Amino acid sequence: GRKGRRGVTGSYGYEGAKGAQGGIGPYGFEGPRGDTGYNGDFGKIGSAGEKGVMGYKGVIGPRGDEGKVGEDGLKGQIGTAGAIGDRGPKGYRGKMGLPGPPGRPGGPQQTSLGSVQNGGGGGARGVDLGKTPDYYHGEDEDNEFGNENKVSLSLEELEAELLTRLHRLYDDFANFQKPTGSKQFPALTCKNLFNDHPYLKSGTYWLDPNEGATEDAVQAYCNSEKKLTCISPIIKKTELKQWYRGGDRYLWFKEDIDDNFKFRYTVESNQLTFLQLHSDKAKQKIIYHCINSTAWRDRTNDVTHSIKLLGDNEREYKASTPRKHRPTVLSDGCQVKDEERRSTVIEIVTEKTSRLPMRDIAVYDIGDDGELFGLELGNVCFS
């Protein structure tokens, strides 16, 4: 017969069993970059490599800057005694000695002043005057008592003369103990002078620091207010001019530029040495006059090429000197270069009195055209 009509849909059947795994599909598209991960742990240190071969010797480097001046060393031990020197020349005549004790009474031949004056029997024996001026005696040498009619002084006048001489001896003795700063009685230093004579005023006095004969005494200016002993440079000032043309380098003024400027002072030799020994402090000012020449600091405040000062002890003092011994800059006008005349004032104050006075000055910034300078030395004052 004919095919029948489609029947109605039946109910869902039971779930079938899991099929076999299919094959690997094709690669998908690259995904976005993930976040940064945490740092991993350090790995183990590897073993050292082999020692490399020595490299070639390097070239010599440029010369380094000059080092700072070291501190003063410890005081050395006293050296062994030197050999006995040759006999020196005859010394100067010594100072007047102290008055001696009174002499013994005269012998029987002496005559009392009473008999000389035509007195009666004569009073007690008078004072033995020793050698008296000729006008005390008569002119007849054969007469033991002289010519009685020509005695020119009375007893009162003779006594007055004796007192005058005694007073003079007393004054000399007092001046010997406390010198007055005169040529005959020079003081040790101005400080000693004003301690002994506080009423004295400032001025020029005679001094004898080595305490020898007065023939080598020296003159110095004494400041009564501060009890300073001040000595002056013999040549105080130089010209302001162009002293040198060439490359910038250090030149010592006396040694390299002008040996006529001796840096000498009114007190020298052993008198200066003893003045240093008798003093606790010394000071001196130096003025550097300039036009377009740097003295201490340049326009950038650099002090590499500051001037150098040579002390009496042959040590150098400059901007790089340790602070304890470094000069003090009171004003530094030469830092400015503007075609104008200016000046830099430098002062050294020290308890090492052997450092002063200054004996030379080294300058640097002076070689170009228009760089002018001049020096001016101040007094050296000891106290």
UniProtKB/TrEMBL annotation:
Q: Does the keyword Secreted apply?
A: yes
Q: Where in the cell is it found?
A: Secreted
Give this protein's Gene Ontology molecular function annotations: extracellular matrix structural constituent
Keywords linked to the UniProt accession:
Collagen, Secreted
Q: Is-annotated flag, keyword Ligase?
A: no
Q: For this UniProt entry, what's an example GO CC term?
A: collagen trimer
Q: Which InterPro entries match?
A: Collagen, Fib_collagen_C
Q: What is this protein called?
A: Collagen alpha-2(I) chain
